[in-house]
What does this fold into?
Amino acid sequence: MNKAAVEVGLSFGDALSDARARVPEVKAEEGIPEADEALLAALADWCDRYTPLVATSGEDTLLLDVSGCAHLFGGEDALLEDCLSRLKLQGFTASGAVADSVGAAWAVARSDGGVVAPKEQRETLENLSISLLRVEEKVVASLSRVGLKVIGDLLDRPRAPLANRFGEALVQRLDQALGMEGEPISPRLYTPALVVERRFFEPIAREDDVLAVIQSLAENLQKALERRQEDGRAFELVLFRVDGVVSRLAVGTSGPVRSPALVLRLFREKLKTVGDELDAGFGYDLIRLGALKTQDCTAAQLDLGGGSCHEDDLAELVDRLGARLGLAQVSRFLPQNEHLPEAQSLLVPAATVRETALYWTGVEDERDNEALLEHPLRLLPHGEQIETVAMVPDGRPLRFRWRKASYEISGSEGPQRIAPPWWQNDAGTRDYYRVEDQEGRRFWLYREGMYGEQSKTPRWFLQGLYA
It folds into this structure.
């Protein structure tokens, strides 16, 4: 209900027919809990301008941990006034309080509101109703029947009798309100390791201005990372619009990054992907850049020419593709310590295995290169069973049938035997053959199992195709 409904005598819980009989012009709409929850989450995102530690409680409450943040706004009174005035301009009716404990702030915000000094917390709570301790209504009714109506009636009473008669929850809420028992909040969003921001007296809306601010913030973030001897692996850009809409853009990297130019380049690519979805509206009055994830990074020796190496170029390519397509969409093959050809490489996100995946580019041994060339360019995910004809049971194939087509073999090389490790008895020995049919097509076949040992009737499979 709004304020006008309360003034005409309506109360929460009345039947709609009774309310319309008393006030014919009353307006009622069906409640949409999902929309209310989404609106509260949007307000929580907006409150991120005051502190990164923002949580929701119930259907209409926001909890902000402003420890160490109030001085940025001129003190706790100025911070609370700024928050409530901005919410009022957006059309919300809100009340708030600042206190050393969640329970005290919750109670004061629902009475007169304001800032509670640390030494005045007990005096402020004395005259407030017990219902503001966040206890069940039946507990409040039971306390009222014995003459206990305000919090001051409970402060000096022994805790044990109260807990035995009215439940331990009452004592816990009382201690939490007084700050005698801790009550941490659980932030909705992941707290960045480092944050830099810039506020504007006049909002900005042009993309060039936003990019210039990102460049400046990235330079400040670089200095903070250098002091901590860390580099960033994930960055987040938060844009606060003057009308309360908050936009978040995140980019990740395949390796540690600290250079402002690289950070700007990644967000430039990200802005290209969002396009018209990111509407500046009447402009942004606050832009924040944060390092969501960092890692220790020691100084590395550059090459004598002073230029970037192949690994740096590849990492930059992965980062740019990840910024535009998403890091989960950029993959590379990671070598695996497996004996079967189809399991010797694994497709994984490129940003998570940068050092290991570059093994493929660092092969220098000629024998390793020759071994790689033995495998066909197109390797099937799993061997497809085929029908073959051979002169002797364990000899090379003469012809085979695959996918309803027959192929006459004119030449073959092999076998190349691949046996499983001794601890894997379920897998059979494979004999691989490189074969060529009469039309010049080349295939990679293998026979699984051996006559008289592992299987009486070995099976043939096609593993890959040569170019």
